[in-house]
Amino acid sequence: NAGVTQTPKFQVLKTGQSMTLQCAQDMNHEYMSWYRQDPGMGLRLIHYSVGAGITDQGEVPNGYNVSRSTTEDFPLRLLSAAPSQTSVYFCASSRTSGGQSYEQYFGPGTRLTVT
Amino acid sequence: AQSVTQLDSHVSVSEGTPVLLRCNYSSSYSPSLFWYVQHPNKGLQLLLKYTSAATLVKGINGFEAEFKKSETSFHLTKPSAHMSDAAEYFCVVSRPISLQGAQKLVFGQGTRLTINP
To answer: Going by C-beta distance under 8 Å and a sequence separation of 6 or more, which residues neighbour residue B70?
Structure first.
């Protein structure tokens, strides 16, 4: 049971380049989400999904796309990278049931630098 | 709207002394509250959670937190700090964001805990 995995661990992009951050979980969780972490700001929600084919925007969705074709995978796409997207990105997953707050399990993060 | 405020951005204590990390929350209804810990260059790990059962919640590694509705606080404590406790700590409130029962986590700004030998 690997939990939540993210690849790559580190990435450097030039402004305007696109890329996909990968996230996978093996716990059969319905809920998956992407956060970005910036100094002094905690984590902020980018996009989330409550199941295959169902996604929605979080607080800071601009410049990012997501899709969810399987329960296990939830990739995050940067369409045209900008220096403001330099951050550490975390993927998380959890069960969902009747509005209860279940523990969210976090991946190890991807550190992205845009030059 | 739900929000959390962590009252200290940095706390420094000596090894073996008590730890207190302060968190106030704002919520329009009975909240679910969490403390997460992040060790350097690592992901986040759940320390403990409050979901309207006992107001004193015990977590991992000797940490506990007390939910005080009258003070809208959820402070994290530990009787005796250990060097391995040095990390960033986040107070988090959750709120429902969809009919399917998904919960959004709203993070505080974080408190960096330093342990002095």
So the answer is: none
> Hey, is A98 helix, strand or coil?
coil
Answer whether A96 sits within 8 Å of B32, measured CB to CB: no
Give B51's contacts (C-beta < 8 A, 6+ positions apart).
A100, A101, B32
- Residues of chain B positioned with their CB less than 8 A from the CB of A97: 101
β-strand partners of B89: B37, B111
- What integer is the mean pLDDT of A31-58? 91
- B-chain residues near A102 (CB < 8 A): 103
The pLDDT of A64-90, averaged and rounded, is: 97
Q: Does B9 touch chain A (CB under 8 A)?
A: yes
What integer best gives the mean pLDDT of chain A? Answer: 92
Instruction: Report strand pairing: B111-116 vs B10-14.
Output: parallel
8 Å CB contact of A109 and B100: no
